[in-house]
Amino acid sequence: MKIVAADIGFGYTKVTDGDRCQILKSLIGEANPSPFAENLSRMDPGYPRGISTVDGDFFVGELAEEHSLNRVFSLDPDRFIAQLAQPLALAGLIPFCPSGEKVRLVTGLPVKLYKKYRTELESLLCRRHRVEVLVGEQDRREHIIDIDRVRVIPQPFGSFFFQMLDGEGKRRDETMLEGKYGIIDIGFKTADFAISNRSRYAERGSTSNDFGIGWAYKAIADEIERRTGLGIELYQMSDAVRRKNLKIRGKVVDITPMVESAYSDLAKHIADEANSLWARDWDMEAVFLTGGPATTLAPFLTQYLQNELKVLEGPKDLRLANVAGYYRFGRYVWNDAGISSREAVHGLDTGHGERPAEVQSNAEDSPAVTSPLGRHQGSDDRSLESLQSGHDPARIERLAAAQGSVGVALPQ
């Protein structure tokens, strides 16, 4: 049974099947009929941006940004889960889920949203979805996404699993198995903080705050509005911030000082949280920084963070680190034949939504500080201890640099 992974972020949605991946903006809008045929004819039909579900017709991602009159982009968790999570996930999964075939999905949530929304997210995703791909105004192609099981894990552990497991779900990094490390995962809305102590998830040292890169974008957008009177949506800021300039009414405006000031302030907020949260964790080997803005923010964070900081060694586009780690975790939990081999994941309490029941979670929420990799649940299970004592040859796999938002190959 095929394993897929989706990182449904507030800023971007990332999906992979271990071989290919795609990234789309976490934005949906009504399907605008007037430019419908022209818009869709220019899109890659293998990576659709126009879909129809039981809730209606949607443009997603860049197509919604360019052509939808009414768009939905939200940093409010309740609204995001209720209105955006499912259509974004389905649009992202279509290229990787053969129609009608059962798949198993790993996804994640920010640490502070994990317990509140995990079951709801499982319920939204763990079912048989009938989707229509909008090829043209009158041309619709049915696609069945049959999600047999869902695992939801705290987001920063995606990057942890990427570092610790190889593409087949086998352990590859002995150092991380034995040591104590902090993880800071910077997303669009949130910054997530987690501790791995001998590969055990420590809830005491894990939390989230709202100082994601979107906080810096808002600070920059507010300053631009103050100076020019021009209001800019946050989802429109990423290209301008990357270039450090903005074209306003034909004139190029240098925003470098605004960007650097906002990044410095953001880094201080993140470091203050980490320094306070981990004040007693002086014995950590290092803090790993991950997330799309990690490389950019690292020089600013180094000025304020008390622990040694290392940018995660992983995909060149670190937006993909969590989703790649989700996939590797899925390979660990379920073997190639799709047989559930490691159903209990202690400490993380991922639950495991499964059908035909609405969604069943076989583990209770628990604050226990235990291994994220599992325990014996059958003859083919491997506990963390057996992973540590045995030897699985590491297969080096790196995600290719994203040369666009669709169809990026993951070399084996």
Number of strands: 20
**Percent in strands:** 15-25%
- Domains (count): 3
Q: Tell me, briefly, the overall form.
A: globular
- Report the helical percentage: 25-40%
| CATH homologous superfamily caption of the largest domain | ATPase, nucleotide binding domain
Radius of gyration: 21 Å
Structural class: alpha+beta
CATH fold-level assignment of the largest domain:
Nucleotidyltransferase, domain 5
Based on the structure given, which CATH architecture of the largest domain is correct? 2-Layer Sandwich
Mean pLDDT: 79
- Helix segment count? 12
What would you note in describing this structure?
The chain is α+β, with helices and mostly antiparallel strands and 412 residues long. It folds into 3 domains: 256 residues, ATPase, nucleotide binding domain (Nucleotidyltransferase, domain 5, 2-Layer Sandwich); 91 residues, ATPase, nucleotide binding domain (Nucleotidyltransferase, domain 5, 2-Layer Sandwich), CATH 3.30.420; 48 residues, no CATH class. Strands 1, 2, 3, 4, 5, 6, 7, 8, 9, 10, 19 and 20 form a 12-stranded mixed β-sheet that branches. It is globular, with a radius of gyration of 21 Å. The two termini are 19 Å apart. The C terminus is likely disordered.
